Amino acid sequence: MDWILAMTYLWLKAGHIIFVIFWMAGLFMLPRFFVYHQEAEPGSAENALWVEREARLLRIILWPSLVLTWVLGLLLAYSIGALAEGWFHLKFAAVLALSGYHVWLVGYHNALATGERRLSGKQLRLLNEVPGVAAALIVIMVVVKPF
Ligand code: HEM
Fold first, then answer.
1. What number does the ligand 1 atom closest to the CA of 145 have?
2. What share of the chain is helix, strand, coil (3-state, %, to 5)?
3. Ligand 1 mean position to 114 CA, how many Å?
4. Residue 66: how many other CB atoms lie within 10 Å
5. Whether 58 contacts 52, CB under 8 Å
6. Does the Cβ of 102 fall within 6 Å of ligand 1?
7. What pLDDT does residue 1 have?
8. What is the C-alpha separation between 70 and 52, in angstroms, rounded?
9. 3, 32, 59, 106: which has the fewest Cβ within 10 Å?
């Protein structure tokens, strides 16, 4: 019985890490797409191509990876009783912030599709610091568990 529980935990964790990698890859790619998209004239054929590419990245990579990272992460948390631990609370806050960033990117994609260009290319490049910093904090919490 202990053997089955231990194997379940390891498979859940493997799945969790796989979908974390896909999610993070998508979060780094989408703002790069925005940089090129913004250079296209609103209403042009090139603009429509970028809208379609971004929508596909969201549909095939970003949304499924977010959902599976959350589901597998919550199952892991439940299986090791992490819900009451300090490191988990900070990790959870950082994951909420990352999910908020994901939703903000969806909003920016919708705005770009209607011809709005709210940020400069430089500001969009700087945005890539957000998932980087959040991922570093999350990995330190889950591996070092400092409190
Ligand atoms: C709702 C979202 C999430 C929840 C509830 C969650 C929860 C968990 C839990 C409970 C573990 C097992 C920890 C252990 O066995 O000691 C874990 C492992 C891990 N998580 Fe998450 N996680 C989430 C999202 C993320 C994100 C967004 C990242 C990275 C950016 C991430 C990175 C990792 C890594 C690298 C591990 C493996 C750590 C190790 O065993 O050495 N997680 N997660």
1. 16
2. 85, 0, 15
3. 36
4. 21
5. no
6. no
7. 63
8. 26
9. 3
Query: Could you state, in order of their start, the residue ranges of all structural domains in the chain?
Result: 2-144
Task: List Cα–Cα distances, 92 to 10, 21, 134, 135, in angstroms.
Answer: 20, 17, 11, 12
Number of Cα atoms under 13 Å in the Cβ half of residue 82: 19
Are the C-beta atoms of residues 104 and 110 closer than 8 Å to each other? no
pLDDT of residue 128: 87
Q: Which atom of ligand 1 is nearest to the CA of 94?
A: 27
Residue whose CB lies within 8 A of the most ligand 1 atoms, among 16, 28, 85, 88, for a mutation test: 16
Tell me if 138 CB under 6 Å of ligand 1. Answer: yes
The amino acid sitting at 48 is A
Going by alpha carbons, the residue nearest to atom 32 of ligand 1 is: 139
Kindly report, residue by residue over 100-146, the tens digit of the pLDDT.
Answer: 999 999 999 999 999 999 999 999 999 989 999 999 999 999 999 99
User: pLDDT tens digits for 52-104?
Assistant: 999 999 999 999 999 999 999 999 999 999 999 999 999 999 999 999 999 99
Please tell me the distance between residue 98's alpha carbon and the centre of ligand 1 in angstroms: 13
